[in-house]
Structures are given as C-alpha cells and as structure tokens.
Write a structure and sequence with these properties.
This protein is of the alpha/beta class. The protein is about 40% helix and about 20% strand. The radius of gyration is 20 Å and the shape is globular.
C-alpha cells in the first residue's frame, strides 16, 4: 500500500493507493486544512487512525523546494524530512517531490474531460511541456520526454524570479509594491497567486483610484479571514458584479499570461502549456477572453512560435494527488 499526499498552503490531501487500483482510484482519501495542524506528521497520524490500513511506502508532493530529502513548505511553517517520516511511521521508503512535479506526472495520463483547451496549437510529439499552477502560491514546473517516450517532471521555483511589467499599469503596480508595500524584491508570486497576489492587486487598484470600493464589499472583506474568495465571488457575481474586483482578475490574468509565455519560451514548450492549481478552473471566462492568448504570445519575434504551442487548463482538482500516486507506484 502506498500513502500519497498533496500538500499546499491551504489544504493537504492524503490518500491510499495500491498497484492494483492504480493512480486514479484511491482506496481512501481525506482532505485537511493545512493551517490547523502543526506538522505533516500530525495530519498523517490522524489519517492512519482513521483508515487503519498498513502502509509500506509514502510519496508526498510538497509546495516548496526539496534539498537532501528535506522540504520547507513555502506558505506554511512546516519542515518535512523523508528520514524522520520513515523512522516515525516505520515505512520502507518515503519520497518527497515538488508539488508541480506531482501535477506534471499526472499530465500524460489526463483524460479529455480533465482538460479545457484554450489553444489547440500544433503539439510536437515528445516536446517539452510547461506547467503553471496558481493557487495559494504560484507553482511552476516542466516536463521533458526521454528516449523511452516517458515524460519526467522537473521542479522549479520560477515564480520567485523578478516580476517584469509589460505595460504602464504593471509598471505602476511594481512601483506600488516597492514603495507602498515595502518589497525590495517583487516576485511573480507576489502579484500572481491567491494567497499573496490577489490581495496585493486589489490593494493596488483600490489605493490608486482605479475603481471605487463599494461599501458592501468593504464590509465583507472586513469580516473575512481570507479576502481572495470574496474578491473572486464579487468579480463573477452576475447579479451584482464589482468593477474593482473584475479589474483585479483581468490584471491577474494578464500577468499569468505573460509569465506563461516566459516559461514556455525558456523550456521551448512545443508539447504544450498547462495551467493547473485551484485558481485556473475558477476563472475560465477570463482565460477565454482573446486578451489572454494575446498577452501570452506578446514576445516579439517569437510570437508565432508561441502561437503553435497548445494551451490547456487542467480541470481535475486532484491532478496533483494522482500525479504523486503515479510517481510513487512507478
């Protein structure tokens, strides 16, 4: 039996898989709020009490870099150690992989219903694949195909590179982040994620007078622990759409598109560009607007190269879990 975990700053999903059931059919599965637990070990202990299934091995997809079998979760104060987990729970083997590697290993096995295509493009057989996953943070990774025609997923911390504005509004955003928010280094994750980016974009557009903040929205935000779901809901409320929140999503999508194009060129993603994470499926109407692909391809002489690259949105919210299971079972 294989214990698999998909961990992020918001939630941790644990599940048990077997070689017979395969990576798409967990034997048992539970989701936990990450911030309510002091460590991964505490969640695992609760889960094992619940399922009472003997576990031989474990594979965890973690939202952060991994060095020598150890990981510090980027958006929550956890330290995870393969050796400690193996010793504490008596497992034969434990493996930590980056959460974008988890998503990457799911991509070759995705079914048509698991994706939404924004651009069919002209995919190259065995071509590299770029993956971006905006959620609590912004995950980035890529896949390469080996001589055996199997893909290998690679970790990246590309979202922490310096944010590069593409128009005057984004230039003003960078200036605001440095002067008003006090950041010496403004990364893409600071402006293109759910936990940090959406609130920062909202503050910027509100404080610079781009649109007026309605009183009813101010009240909702004041009583909410997490402003991001409130902003998303207000932007997409058909009965009472909020201009300010809609502007936040449009700016978010423009930045995501530009960074998707950046990553695609860096790995020459002729196999396609995949957008995963918790946010992408929730903002499909914004991603479907022509401005998204236009911004993604806005790379001068390489615009035509990007136009040939397929662009897909991963709709299956369990892609990270299934990918970690596929890797662990393999």
């Amino acid at each position: 039996m294989l214990l698999v975990g998909d961990m992020g700053g918001t939630k941790t999903v644990l599940a048990v898989f077997s070689p017979e059931s395969g990576p798409h059919q967990p034997i048992s599965e539970t989701t936990y709020p990450s911030a309510h637990y002091p460590s991964l070990e505490a969640i695992v202990q609760d889960f094992l009490k619940q399922v009472q299934t003997p576990i031989e091995r474990a594979c965890f997809g973690v939202a952060g870099p991994i060095f020598d079998g150890k990981a510090h979760i980027t958006n929550i104060a956890w330290e995870i150690d393969e050796a400690n987990l193996k010793s504490r729970f008596g497992w034969e083997k434990v493996k930590l992989i980056n959460d974008l590697q988890s998503v990457g290993y799911a991509i070759p096995a995705l079914e048509p219903a698991d994706i939404y295509t924004l651009n069919a493009g002209k995919p190259a057989a065995g071509g590299p694949i770029a993956v971006l996953a905006p959620g609590t943070g912004l995950g980035e990774g890529f896949l390469t195909c080996g001589p055996d025609s199997n893909y290998t997923a690679h970790a990246s911390e590309g979202s922490h590179v310096s944010f590069g504005p593409t128009n005057q509004l984004q230039v003003d955003l960078l200036k605001y982040m440095r002067e008003k928010k006090g950041y010496d280094h403004v990364s893409y994750e600071r402006v293109c994620s759910g936990g940090l980016g959406i609130p920062n974009l909202y503050d910027f557009l509100r404080d610079t007078g781009y649109a007026t903040q309605p009183d009813w929205l101010a009240e909702k935000l004041a009583s909410s622990e997490d402003p991001t779901p409130v902003i998303f809901a207000a932007a997409q409320d058909a009965d009472r759409p909020c201009e300010l929140c809609a502007a936040v999503l449009r700016l978010f999508v423009d930045i995501l598109a530009a960074e998707a194009g950046n990553l695609a060129l860096k790995v020459m993603a002729t196999g396609g560009i995949y957008l995963g994470g918790g946010i992408s499926p929730r903002i499909l109407p914004y991603l479907e607007e022509p401005s998204f692909l236009k911004m993604l391809r806005n790379k001068g002489r390489f615009a035509e190269v990007l136009a040939k690259m397929p662009v897909h949105v991963i709709l299956n919210s369990k892609a990270g879990l299934f990918g970690a299971a596929a890797y662990g079972l393999r």
